[in-house]
Amino acid sequence: MYMTTGAVIRRVRKSTGMTQTELGALINFSQPAVSGLERGGPASHDVRVLRLVARALRVPLAILVVESDQEAEVDRRKFFKAGAVGATAASVVGAGASVRVGASEVDAVVECAKQIHELDLSVGGDRLCQLAANQVRYVEQLLEGGRFRDEIGRALTSAAAEMMTAAGWVHYDAGRFDDARRFYADAANAANAAGDGIAAAHALGNASCLMVGRPGDAGGNPLAVQYAQAASRAAMRSGGPRLRALMAIREAEALGARGDRPGMNSAISRAHRAYDSVRGYDPDWVYLPESELIGGTGWAQMRLGEHDAATMNLQAAVDGSVVWPRERAAWQINLAQNHVNSGDIARGCAVLAENFETMRGFTSTRLNHRIDAIAETVRVHAKIPEVRELLGKRAAPM
Q1: How many separate domains does the chain show?
Q2: From CA 386, how far away is CA 354, in angstroms rounded?
Q3: Which chain positions lie within coiled-coil regions (predicted)?
Q4: What is the domain range of residue 211?
Q5: Is residue 99 very low, low, confident or very high in pLDDT (cuts 50, 70, 90)?
Q6: What is the pTM of this model?
Q7: Could you tell me if residue 73 is inside a domain?
Q8: In the chain, which ranges are E strands?
Q9: Is 212 left (phi over 0), alpha (psi -120 to 50) or beta?
């Protein structure tokens, strides 16, 4: 199920800490008018209004498009052509002639990739797939048909790698795993071509995350460990504290899934040491607040059945992710899974039931499938009140 355009506006606005009054001041709306917009009033179908909202919230206009038959009044193709980067892409693709590419075009690609990463943390990846794929096509067109100096060419190739990694992540979040693998492979190739160890680490680390199986899967994937270790090596050479810590946590997750307790603990220790260091450079897209580092530690611990430690760390990740609603939901699902795995069925189902409506509101097929998998696992315990509550909410129409 997809949120309405008004619901998307509300979620993005709240994730930035902006009030309805503040948004209204930016688009010349009263607070009641903004409230009506967020409730799905006529203004939510007006492209002129949505352009103002997108500019005020600093998001691509395409993010406000709803993939729903109920909102057929909105022509999605117009939206994808209206965004700043998207409009440039359309003009480049249709021009039939080479275009001069400079630093401003590279900066626009980097900024769009950053926005896609941030929006996924708020609303989920399903609605971002087409936007991200369009931007990958745009940067590929620039590389193939543009005119640029060697220095700009390397920067553009690095930006392409980041855009491909962003596309891979939202496709992963949308449950489109084959597409995600393809984008990650292309990203790694582009990063290597540019000699960009930071972008290579990002692509390889995300690819390892994709290959790590769901909790409970036996054995894990040996390739996940190899990819994560390659990402860690690239990060050690080129990255700053947070990138090195993030890739070490990816390694810990893969090793935990393989049952390698010493290796996992070593990677966790390395992640925390890196996080406290000051060496190297982290680009803006590196998302690793302390709560994420702690949550990744708990995720790895859960893989090896260290449930008490995992509970403490996963709860800390939930508490520290309030500003990123979709990410917070992911940690809540991890926490619920950990409780179920430890045998505390009631507690795990209570976490899901208490937050069920919010979780189901995100456009993340990956998270919805995880909720469904947990619900099916606990169905045999339907005599437990918390299990019945969860199953009842899951069966109710949304």
Answers
A1: 4
A2: 10
A3: none
A4: 196-288
A5: confident
A6: 0.76
A7: no
A8: 99-100, 146-147
A9: beta
